[in-house]
Structure formats: structure tokens, C-alpha cells
Amino acid sequence: MEERIGESWIEADRESLKDLLSKLKAQGFDMLVDITAVDLLNHPDSEGKPRFEIVYHLCSVSSGELIRVKVRVEEKEAEVESVVDIWPGADWYEREVWDMFGIRFKGHPSLKRILMYDGFEGHPLRKDFPMDGRQPLIRR
């Protein structure tokens, strides 16, 4: 575990992520506050490292302690295990990360768009998403 300016985080690898999150829940981090992602494309500190970072924010309700768990994934292998079976509320967070960044959650019960419409092409929070691109029309 690392700490800087009073904030604690753990960097995990993809293979052990779900096991680590299960252990943290058993140790009292019983509330999943958020799951998000960061696109580190062209970030100066990320040269030679995986493009995406998935970040899990956890809280211990009894102590108020917060911790973040970070995992890096390559663009070609942008997939981690779903944690919906650990925290059912992860359903919406994982769908949002899928919709906005294109990162898949293996084992998710219904990984589909949540913010963009079904015909939307691409993932708008990726740094290489074409800002001047056109999307298919929505027909009613």
C-alpha cells in the first residue's frame, strides 16, 4: 500500500484484482464508492506503460477510512473481472466505464451502454475519440 498526502492506494495487477477486492471487503472496506478509469494516452509519466488505469474507490463505513485500488490495462487487453458479485452496485459503474472508455468487465451480467445510445460508435472519454466525428441518427 502507498500513501501520499493522506491518501492511500494499492496498485494491483489484473490477475489478482478481484481476489484483492474481495479481501479488502472482508477486512472492512464494505462500501464501493465508485469505479472509474483514466486514459493515459500521451501522458508523459506513462511512456511504455499500459494505456488505461481502472480505479476502485472503497470506504470502510465503520471507520470512515478510504482506499483506492488501481489496475493498469493495455488497450488491446482492456478487460478485468466484474465485481458485481462482490458489490451489486458495481453494475452501473462498470457499465459507465465500458460505455465511456471501452473497458470490458468479464462476467458482468449485462454489459451494455448506460449513457450513450445503442447506436453510438466509439467511447467518448478516450483521448483519441474524434471530436468532430458524426454519429448515426437516432430514429424514433
Tell me briefly what this model is:
This protein is α/β, with parallel strands linked by helices and 140 residues long.
Describe the structure.
The chain has 140 residues and is α/β, with parallel strands linked by helices. It has one domain: NADH:ubiquinone oxidoreductase Nqo5 subunit (Beta Polymerase, domain 2, 2-Layer Sandwich), CATH 3.30.460.80. Helix content is 16%, strand content 29%. The protein is built from 2 helices and 7 strands. The strands form 2 sheets. It has a 5-stranded mixed β-sheet with strand order 1-2-5-4-3. A hairpin with a 6-residue loop joins strand 4 (52-59) and strand 5. The longest helix has 12 residues, at 90-101. The termini are far apart.
Which descriptors would you attach to this protein?
140 residues, alpha/beta, Beta Polymerase, domain 2, 5-stranded mixed beta sheet, two-stranded parallel ribbon, 7 strands, 29% strand, globular
Question: Topology of this protein?
Answer:
Layout: E1 2-4, E2 7-12, H1 17-26, E3 31-39, E4 52-59, E5 66-73, E6 79-81, H2 90-101, E7 104-106
Parallel strand pairs: 2-5, 6-7
Antiparallel strand pairs: 1-2, 3-4, 4-5
| Arithmetic mean pLDDT | 92
Q: How large is the count of helical segments?
A: 2
Q: Which regions contain 5 or more consecutive residues with pLDDT less than 50?
A: none
The main sheet orders its strands as 1-2-5-4-3
- What is the β-strand count? 7
Largest sheet: 5 strands, mixed
CATH topology: Beta Polymerase, domain 2
Give the oligomeric state.
Answer: single chain
Proportion of residues in β-strands = 25-35%
The name of the CATH architecture is: 2-Layer Sandwich
Q: Give the helix/strand class.
A: alpha/beta
Number of domains: 1
Helix content: 10-25%
From the alpha carbons, calculate the radius of gyration and give it in angstroms: 16 Å
How do the SSEs run, as a string of H and E? EEHEEEEHE
State the CATH class. Answer: Alpha Beta
**CATH superfamily assignment?**
NADH:ubiquinone oxidoreductase Nqo5 subunit
